[in-house]
Design goal:
Radius of gyration of chain A: 19 Å
Distance between the termini of chain B: 50 Å
Structural class of chain B: mainly alpha
Largest sheet of chain B: none
Distance between the termini of chain A: 20 Å
Strand content of chain A: under 5%
Oligomer: heterodimer
Chain lengths: ~290, ~130
């Protein structure tokens, strides 16, 4: 394959990933890694690095729009960031400096994808937790106001420690699998800390950039960020996400999310199948032998 | 009320940082990629030949490449600008909380920065 064709194909693939990611609110990270590894034969660590870079691109773009609306809770985001960043650094260190078999990464990726699909398809409930002075959540200033029809409705939160624990796992998965981990972040804020749904989703998006930064620095420094792979992916996903956001208002999102959950499920099974039959490592060994021949 | 307004201003300012950062990164990496394609567009690129143990990232090599207008390094610079965008956002929040005299969140933000710093140090030194 020539350099030009490779770039165009990666760009087109990332365009689709960004488009679907923006429509479903899942970001494109979970599609990029299967696309690069299984579709183009990119070695796992390089694929994870390129995916993390694209995650920063989409989350920063979307976060800019959300911040303008004033729903994002910066304090809650910053507090939980301690846990996610720690998890993300640990995840990246494990991948870059420990010899984790690539097939195992593929299988874990598939399992996490299935959990993601289930969590996305599940019904959401909107919470409104009272602000109770004296609780740990209150002392940590984990409350805020949500503008509803021009009036500020106050909301509180609970269980900041359990929330942080789940956030640490979300960060770990982000560093290990090169994804944003938004679904797990929303789970912590929505189901555990009982924040209003809109606050959970926007704050999660706001956090993803920093989480991905903490882990991608390690991939970057180790040399796994290759411009020929990362740049077309980044460019494609940004444009795709922009088109997706513009299309969002005109279509039925619920049906789309169901279809997407199905697609994610199929990709997940394919990843698990490839991992358990050793396809990832077969590719790796193939190129290891070829590079040592030179 | 005035305090609410101030917080909103911080939010909008941070939103602007994110927007400009992403677009700067976008155009730098686009320019770099076009340069790479012009120079090596017809050369073969096989991702399977990427080294198992790549060369570590070097600031000196990047700087040298940018001075020589090497498209590969300009592309890398674009990706670095992208990484710097969320970092700048955290730094901005740090000063924002200091101005608000919210020392609890000044401290929390400082911890987040410290973790990113340690990550950078671990990555570069190992």
């Amino acid at each position: 394959m020539t350099e030009l064709l490779f770039s165009v194909l990666l760009f087109s693939g990332a365009l689709c990933a960004g488009f679907i990611g923006a429509l479903t609110g899942l970001g494109g990270g979970i599609i990029i890694v299967p696309l690069l590894t299984l579709g183009f034969g990119v070695p796992m660590k390089y694929a994870l690095a390129a995916s993390l870079i694209s995650v920063i691109g989409t989350s920063s773009g979307a976060a800019a729009a959300y911040l303008k609306e004033g729903i994002t809770n910066m304090k809650i985001g910053m507090f939980l960031q301690i846990a996610t960043a720690l998890g993300a650094v640990l995840g990246a260190l494990i991948i870059v400096y420990m010899n984790v078999p690539v097939d195992i990464i593929g299988i874990i990726f598939g399992i996490v994808l299935i959990i993601t699909a289930i969590l996305t398809a599940r019904k959401k409930s909107d919470h409104r937790e009272p602000v109770v002075p004296g609780t740990l959540a209150h002392r940590l200033q984990l409350y805020g106001g949500l503008p509803v029809k021009g009036v500020m409705e106050p909301y509180g939160s609970r269980s900041p420690i359990l929330g942080s624990l789940i956030m640490a796992i979300a960060g770990l998965l982000s560093g290990l699998l090169g994804v944003g981990g938004g679904v797990f972040k929303v789970l912590a804020m929505d189901n555990v800390m009982r924040l209003p749904f809109k606050v959970s989703t926007t704050t999660s998006n706001f956090m993803i950039g920093v989480t991905a930064l903490a882990s991608s620095i390690i991939y970057f420094a180790a040399g796994y960020v290759v411009p020929q792979i990362a740049a077309p992916i980044l460019l494609g996903i940004i444009i795709g996400a922009l088109i997706g956001a513009k299309t969002l208002m005109r279509i039925n999102v619920v049906r789309l999310k169901q279809i997407f959950s199905l697609i994610v499920g199929i990709i997940a099974l394919y990843m698990i199948y490839n991992g358990s039959t050793g396809k990832f490592s077969a590719k790796q060994e193939n190129y290891e032998s070829r590079t040592t021949e030179r | 009320m005035s305090q609410e307004l101030q917080k909103d201003k911080l939010g909008i300012a941070i939103g602007n940082i994110l927007r400009y950062g992403v677009w700067t990164a976008f155009f730098l990496s686009l320019a770099g990629l076009i340069g790479i394609i012009i120079q090596h567009g017809n050369a073969a690129f096989d991702p399977l030949t990427l080294p198992v143990q790549p060369e570590k990232f070097s600031v000196a090599a990047l700087w040298q490449g940018i001075l020589n207008f090497n498209p590969l390094h300009i592309c890398t610079l674009g990706l670095l600008v992208l990484l710097a965008t969320p970092l700048l956002r955290v730094v901005f929040a740090l000063f924002g909380y200091l101005a608000e005299r919210n020392y609890l969140y000044f401290f929390i933000t400082l911890i987040v920065l410290l973790i990113i710093g340690i990550s950078c140090w671990l990555g570069m030194s190992k």
